[in-house]
Design a protein that fits this description.
6 helices; 3% strand
């Protein structure tokens, strides 16, 4: 059995976040000791580690909740897990494309600025007037 502090140390998840995950139903509320301390099992530590890694992969708490439900029912088809991963990957690719457009536009703006004063600065002018951007970003 692990205290909440030990769960935090072992999983890398902060104590308030562990409590939040309990409130969200992502991990079960643990048993309490005679001194009213939370006492977690190895299974709860494994679940917390699963959640932490899913968050590192950028998954939403809603998606993680669905994955937790699937992990509790291993006989279910994997289609839902596959859908979650595919959807998340598409979202990441969209963000990467948007960031590339932002990078190109900012590179262009910065390269075209040769002013000595902020009032003449191309960067300031373009930021003030979106119409001066060459691409939609």
């Amino acid at each position: 059995m692990f205290s909440i502090g030990e769960m935090s140390r072992r999983s890398g998840v902060k104590v308030p976040t562990i409590r939040y995950y309990e409130q969200m139903g992502l991990i079960d509320a643990p048993e309490r000791s005679a001194g009213n301390q939370r006492r977690y099992t190895r299974a709860e530590l494994d679940r917390l580690t699963f959640i932490r890694h899913a968050r590192e992969l950028g998954l939403s708490l809603e998606a993680i909740g669905e994955l937790v439900r699937l992990s509790e029912n291993p006989a279910l088809p994997h289609d839902e897990a596959h859908r979650i991963a595919t959807s998340h990957l598409a979202s990441i690719r969209e963000r990467i494309a948007r960031l590339k457009r932002l990078e190109a536009e900012l590179t262009r703006i910065e390269a075209n600025c040769h002013a000595d004063q902020a009032g003449d600065c191309n960067i300031m002018q373009v930021i003030a007037d979106h119409g001066l951007c060459e691409t939609e970003h």
